[in-house]
Amino acid sequence: MPTRYRNIFLFIGVAAVVAMLWSFDMSWEEVVGHVRRAGIWFPAVVLLWLPIYMMNARAWQIIINDGSPRQLGYWRVLKYTISGYALNSVTPVGLLGGEPYRIMELSPLVGRARAASSVILYAMMHIFSHFCFWLFSVGLFLVRYGHSLSWPMVAVLLLIIAFCLAGVYFFQTGYRHGLAMRTLRLFSHWPLIGRRIERYMQSHTEGIQEVDNQIAALHAQRRTTFYGSLLLEFAARMVGCLEIQFILFIFTSDISYWDCVLMQAFASLFANLFFFIPMQMGSKEGGLAIVTDSLHMNAAYGVLTGLITRLRELIWVAIGLALIRFGNKNTP
Fold first, then answer.
1. Per-residue pLDDT at 287 exceeds 70
2. What is the pLDDT of residue 212?
3. 190: buried, middle or exposed (CB in 10 Å: 19+, 13-18, 0-12)?
4. Do the Cβ atoms of 161 and 169 come closer than 8 Å?
5. Residue (of 37, 7, 107) closest to 305 by Cα position
6. SS3 label, residue 231
7. CA distance 283 to 35
8. Tens digits of per-residue pLDDT, 232-254?
């Protein structure tokens, strides 16, 4: 990728982080106080995300390298993974930052079509694993708390199941028939950007169709790659639940890992309903507070968990933005 484009991505990320720090609703004294109270658990939370990103990178790498004559190295994929997630965190609607960056970085290495298809496939896999994780968590909730369900909670669970099944159906259809052309056709009807996207579709029809063919081929012909990537993404979700447990160890040792899975699942579902907010500011904290209260825990635990999680995100965003600028000497 040309250096000027990397500088543009870096500028967007830094500007977003500065804006979010400026609007942070806590004083620095309070932030330092929470970090000191966390003690050893705060660096444990930060370091926990290294193996999570490593699993994400491996899930993406096996998609990139599947059937490719040129095998892309793991550490380069890890670099693009961390940087891409950093850009996704600080840009509205999530995928508007990290995915174009990943495609532009990969294109000189594996070709534009494979770069686009692998990034789209991995983004689909990442979101698809969300729906699988939420469905798993509904079953876990029924096993642990099904004996004390109220009718309002039954209605909520049924809505969640219906939402997740609809998501699974959508992605399964996209895997079988491709998703790029269908998505662009949907956006072509939007105001302001519709005409531009329609012109792009007309001039790049063959390239878009090639991307869709590669997406469909992975699901239909290379099931080992497909399910291996999905399993790694799901495992990363389960490892990520340890973050909540580490933070809650600050307040109490009487906390179950499976309750942390439920907290993570329902809080992430709540936060993703507000996907258009950069870094899901406020939505994640609110979701954690609601979930902890529903599990008959102190709601303040959820708020403090959200705040410490936010600090961890800022640290990894800074690392990801730094990786955009450094480590590019060997890129053709």
1. no
2. 76
3. exposed
4. no
5. 37
6. helix
7. 21
8. 999 999 999 999 889 888 877 77
145 part of a folded domain: yes
110-119 long-range contacts (CB < 8 A, ≥24 apart) are: 110/64, 110/68, 110/70, 110/72, 112/207, 113/207, 113/210, 113/211, 113/214, 114/64, 114/68, 114/214, 116/180, 116/207, 116/211, 117/180, 117/210, 117/211, 117/214, 117/215, 118/60, 118/63, 118/64
Phi/psi for 40 (5° steps) reads -70, -20
Place of tokens 């469909």: 216
Residue 330 resides in a domain = no
Q: Per residue in 192-201, is it b (16+ CB within 10 Å) or e — as a string?
A: eeeeebeebb
Instruction: With respect to residue 332, please indicate whether it lies within any of the assigned structural domains.
Output: no
3-state secondary structure of 212: helix
The whole domain housing 291 covers 3-325
293-319 in b/e form (b: 16+ CB < 10 A) is ebbebeeebbebbbbbbbbbbbebbeb
Q: Is 242 part of any domain?
A: yes
Number of domains in the chain: 1
Q: Distance (Å, rounded) from C-alpha 204 to C-alpha 200?
A: 6
The torsion defined by the Cα of 83, 279, 26 and 45, in degrees rounded to 10, comes to -60
